[in-house]
Amino acid sequence: MNRLVGILGGMGPGATVDAMQKLIKNTPAYRDQDHIPMIAVSIPDIPDRTQCILDHSASPLEKMIQYMKILENAGAECIIIPCNTAHYWFNELKLHSRVDMISIIDAACQVIRDKKIANVGLLATTATIKAQIYQRHLAESGIDCHIPPAAEQSAVMESIYAYKSGDAEKAHSLLTPIKDRLLRSGVEKIILGCTELPLILQQEIKHAPENYIDATEALIKKTVEWYFAPIRGNKAAA
Amino acid sequence: MNRLVGILGGMGPGATVDAMQKLIKNTPAYRDQDHIPMIAVSIPDIPDRTQCILDHSASPLEKMIQYMKILENAGAECIIIPCNTAHYWFNELKLHSRVDMISIIDAACQVIRDKKIANVGLLATTATIKAQIYQRHLAESGIDCHIPPAAEQSAVMESIYAYKSGDAEKAHSLLTPIKDRLLRSGVEKIILGCTELPLILQQEIKHAPENYIDATEALIKKTVEWYFAPIRGNKAAA
Lengths: 238, 238
Prior knowledge:
The structure is a homodimer of 238-residue chains.
Chain A: E1 5-8, H1 13-25, E2 38-42, H2 49-55, H3 61-73, E3 78-80, H4 90-96, E4 100-102, H5 104-114, E5 119-123, H6 126-130, H7 133-140, E6 144-146, H8 150-164, H9 168-184, E7 189-192, H10 197-200, H11 202-207, E8 212-214, H12 215-228
Parallel strand pairs in A: 1-2, 1-3, 3-4, 5-6, 5-7, 7-8
Helix pairs in contact in A: 1-12, 5-12, 8-9
């Protein structure tokens, strides 16, 4: 077996599958055997990340560590988490991990820096925004980050929960006017900083990919780079 | 954690993701936490199933057992394999498993019986067809099974390999005339007896779902039933 990618998923399950799909699409492969080996744990009983950060309800950390251990014990050499809000606990998870981990926030911010974007919009969960998960990273690089006003942010969150509840149509109609206003406000691109958003805006991304930074896609591209990197840098081998 | 579904995947990776997507879509869920817990191993270095059956090349059995053990050790209580051809080894895999397993062939054939179909077409890998994986099951129930003539069957196989190589367009244009002829020949429905086929014929299934028995969908519906069944029937608990 080649180097195994572990996906700590279930936050939500649809976003996990989207990350796997993007890993397949971003791999140069001509037959099954060329694809990147992956193992995905999608056990969605992890407590709600947003509720924990905003309302101090049950923490998802313990379960995330537990399921990360399943991946490590199965032989995963690099762990990725297709959930932006979960990255609030990224450093703590890293302390508990004995293998490589790639941050979705680092991956997305690197794309923004590489593209020399000075002025970016952010769509994300209210927790990701309130915890300044993206803003802090971007401020360090002198990048302006624009977020929707409070009422619109509530609608973004409602859209994400609608998608998770299976109502993709409601999710889409709630989100579309907000991303339109954000684009009209003059930002160069919008960070899709919640892994449900590329699913909700699937058609828009297809028609105008230049408007978006898909954090999931950025994470996956870094993961493909990790897989094909000539020198092993994982902690287990160190 | 609730009962955990294990997906022995990678045959191919796209089909694995399709099965996971269908598990999500077939689960009544209103939030992340309502979804069925799953773990998927998609390590695609498993030797080609069709080549082994037809040309006696390297057997996939050993690796399939190895990756099935990863699922069992992670706590999977029911294992499914989104690959029809791999079911050539289903009974051997079952001998090595200590948990429940659901056969994609049984699941698809049960749908055909339940729908009282007397006359069915079969699209599958040349190995699945030559090994009579479906035909034997269907003959036991007195169901006529029609397969494409040899030249067309070669094109079906070419289509499947084209899809696996990333050329969805070629896969589609090779397969479409064959499924059209099969439908015109008078079969009531076509079994999509290879997990790449629902991906290749995605649009056709959307427009005329009544023409097809999607084996992956049948497998997933049985898996959802297993998950919600009140009495645990798994071997580990016996």
